[in-house]
Design a protein that fits this description.
- The chain has about 100 residues and is of the alpha/beta class.
- The protein has one domain (about 1-95).
- The protein has helices spanning about 5-10, 15-35, 50-65, 65-70, 80-95, and strands spanning about 1-5, 15, 40, 45-50, 70-75.
- The strands form two sheets. The protein has a three-stranded parallel sheet with strand order 1-3-5. Strands 2-4 form a two-stranded parallel sheet.
- Helix 2 (about 15-35) packs parallel to helix 3 and helix 3 crosses helix 5.
- It is globular and about 30 Å long.
- The N and C termini lie far apart (about 30 Å).
Length: about 100
């Protein structure tokens, strides 16, 4: 299992869509392609924008559908980050 410490790349407020895109392209998609679990550890990330989370997981959800949520684990999420992840995942599952 791969672990990505989001704070290392995005800081305590995850808002940069380019950072999210890089994490998606370089870390998330290769793991999913190999059918490997990946943990996105949001320890010390107090908040994130919806656009950051969307850039992070929307493409994997489009490509891998429900399998994405079986393979991506979200860890140490603040209540705010949890809410944003839930919003994005619900939106992507409806589309």
């Amino acid at each position: 299992m791969k672990i990505v410490k989001v704070k290392k790349y995005a800081g305590t407020f995850a808002e940069n869509k380019d950072v999210a895109r890089d994490l998606r392209v370089k870390r998330i998609m290769p793991a999913l392609k190999k059918d490997e679990e990946i943990t996105l550890d949001f320890d010390q990330v107090t908040s994130a924008t919806q656009s950051f989370v969307h850039a992070l997981i929307s493409e994997p959800m489009r490509q891998y559908r429900d399998r994405t949520l079986d393979l991506i684990l979200f860890k140490n999420c603040s209540p705010t980050v949890k809410e944003i992840i839930n919003t994005v995942t619900e939106y992507m599952q409806e589309s």
